[in-house]
Every structure is written in structure tokens, then in C-alpha cells.
Amino acid sequence: MARQIVVAPRSLATFVAFLLLGVLLVGLAFTVREILIQLFAAIVLAMALEPPVRALERRGLTRDHAVGITFLLALLGAIAFGYILFPPLAEEVTRFVRDVPNLLQELTRGQGRLGFLENRFHIVEYARTWVAKQGGADVVGPRALHAVGGLLHTGASVVAVAFLTLFVGRSGYQWFDALLRVVPEESRERWRRVGGGISNAIGGYVFGNLLISVIAGAFTTAVLLVTRVPHPFPLGLIVAALDLVPLVGAALGAVIVAAVALTEGVTVMAIVIASMWIYQEIENHVLVQLVYHRTVNLSDLAIAVSVATGAEVGGVVGALFAIPIAGALKVVFRELLAWRRGGVPPEETAAPKRTWLSRWRERAHDTASG
Predict the structure, then answer these.
(1) Which of 169, 183, 294, 325 has the smallest number of Cβ neighbours within 10 A?
(2) 349 burial level (CB within 10 Å; 0-12, 13-18, 19+)
(3) Do residues 297 and 328 make contact, with C-beta atoms less than 8 angstroms apart?
(4) Please, what sign has the CA dihedral across residues 296, 302, 306, 308?
């Protein structure tokens, strides 16, 4: 005879209450997801700014003064970036708006530098057909307003993340210390190691991402200087900034640079595109693994799998946070494994890689010895 299972009404009511509470929390998190994303971005940036803050604290400054100076230097760097970028950009946009009537007239006649687009591809006829199918000029107004609204919303989000970063930098360690006082005393050191490891992983990722972006911007600037494309330094800054965004950032930067290079001719544009494509292949398959292996201490396979998984789950945002999340999970798993074994995880150092130069030196030494 089958055993009858009796569930007490109190247990059933508790289960239903916890289930409803979980659904409510999920719904609340979905409602305020934008704020949570901004807070997460602020925590990541605050952890990235932690090394210079600690360096200033070691020199005798208080926490508030060290955070304030670091935040001010970062703000001055952003202002310098805008000062270099926006004046040439505004000049080019003004010139473009002034020359639009003549450019359209030459394009319609198949004349000028862009006349080949009409002669070979009949781009004017395609554009007229597309505008007619979209409803004519009525479609331009709403899309322009939507674009302006998106820019204002992005600007407000950037300001909010900046202030949240400042607040997290000032009070983040106080929150963490308060959390440590809640946990049992015998496990506080383990939790402190977990927090420090996660902070180092996120800071290493941000430093590595910035380093790769600087390299991308410097390479683009060098190519544009060699090919004599206008405004090489602002375009290099644009590529460096967009290279911070995985998946689409490099492609968008290449499109912008190619559009400017087209003003110097199709041959120059082809050279610039080919150079940037070669660099992107080197960056994706060599530079990313090399830098993140050193800064986040992840293997090449872990980096590739984490980025692919993050892109599949969360798109661009998922790919952006995939590597620091993978580094944080590695820290947590190492501590869990050490806890199960009743010990402390060993200090982890990146294993030195044998480069082609070291192998060539070893081969030359063996040849000379033989």
C-alpha cells in the first residue's frame, strides 16, 4: 500500500508565501533593471579605480580625499577626451551640413567623388524608393526625435553612473566591512579574500580592456597618419572608445573611419579597411587572450567560452561583463574548494608563456652548444 504524504497547512502556506515573495522580487528587479545595471556598472568602475585610490591612501591621504582626487583625475581625462574629439567633429559636421546641397546635386548627376555610387549602383533611385515605401518625409521627424531622446537618456545615464561610482568608491568598503561583521568570525578572513579577489579580477579586466583600446586607437591613428586621412587623432580616440564595447564596437569604429577615409578616395578607404581588419584579427585571436591572461588570470579557453556565453545570454552587455564575472566565479570556486578541503587556496600567479623569441633563443643556444 502506497505511503500517504501529508503536508501541514502551515508548511504549505509558508511555501506559497516564499513563492509569492520570489515572484515579487523578480518583478521588482525587472522593473528597476536599468537602475540595477547602472549600479552594477558603478561597482565595476569603482573597483577599477581602487588601485590608484589605495596608492594615495598609502601616501597618507584619507579615503575620502583619495577617492576625490582619483575621481577628479578621471573626470579631467574625460574632459580632455571630449576637448580633443568634439571640436574637429563639430567642424566636420558643420562643413558637411553646408556642403550637403552640392553633394546631393553632384551625386544625382553622377559627378564628384561620390558620383560612382550613382553610376554603378544607382543609389539615388534606391534611396527614393526606400523613402517612398517608408511614408515619405513623415518618417524622418519621429525617428529624429527618437534619436535625440536616446542621446539625452544616454547622457543622463552616464551622469548617474558617474555619481554612483563616486558614492560606491567612498562607501563601498564600509558596506563590505559591515557585511563581514555579520558573518561568523572564523570565516571572515575567507570572505575578505573572496572580496579582494573579485575586486582584483574586475580591476584587472578594466585595466586590460583600457590597454587593448589604447592599442587599437594608437594603431588606427598611425594608419590614418600614413594614409593622410583627415583628423587622425580624433578618429583614433573614437576607435579607442568604441573598442571598449565588445562585438559591435570595433565594427562601428571601422565604419566611421572608412566613411571619413572615403573622402580621400576608394583606394585609401580600401587600405584603411584592410589594415583595421588585420588588426582586429590579431586583437581577437592573440591580444585579448594575452592581456586578459595576465590581468584577470584566466586561460585562453575560459576567456573565449565566457565571452561567447555572455554574448549569447545578454548580447553586448553580457559580452562586456562576461570576463569579470568569469574571474569572480573562479575566485569563489577556489575558495569553496579550499573550504571543502579545510585549507587556504594557494597564491595564484600567471604561468610564464614561452614566446617565439624565447624559443628562438633556446634553439640558437642549443645550436651553438652542439
Answers:
(1) 183
(2) exposed
(3) no
(4) positive
**CB of 48 within 8 A of CB of 172?**
no
CA distance linking residue 282 with residue 268, whole number of Å: 21
Question: Does residue 192 register a pLDDT over 80?
Answer: yes
Assess contact for 303 and 292: CB atoms under 8 A.
yes
Distance CA 300, CA 225 (A): 33
pLDDT digits (tens, 9 = 90+) for 340-365: 777 777 665 544 444 444 554 455 55
Here the cell at position 40 is: 552594477
Largest CA distance in the chain: 93
Cell 587622425 maps to which residue? 232
Give the Cα separation of 201 and 209 in Å (integer): 12
Phi, psi of 300 (to 5 degrees): -60, -40
Angle of CA points 153, 154, 155, to nearest 5°: 90
- Domains of the chain by residue range: 35-182, 189-355
Residues with Cβ < 8 Å from 268, sequence gap 6 or more? 227, 228, 229, 261, 262
Tell me the per-residue pLDDT of 78-132, one tens digit each, with 9 for 90 and over.
888 778 777 777 776 777 677 777 777 777 777 666 666 667 766 777 777 766 6
User: Nearest Cα to 261, choosing from 282, 276, 246?
Assistant: 276
Query: Are 264 and 229 in contact, with CB atoms under 8 Å apart?
Result: yes
Cα gap 93→284, rounded to integer Å: 32
138-167: per-residue pLDDT in tens? 555 666 677 777 778 888 888 888 888 888
Helices (H), 59-139: 63-109, 115-121, 123-133
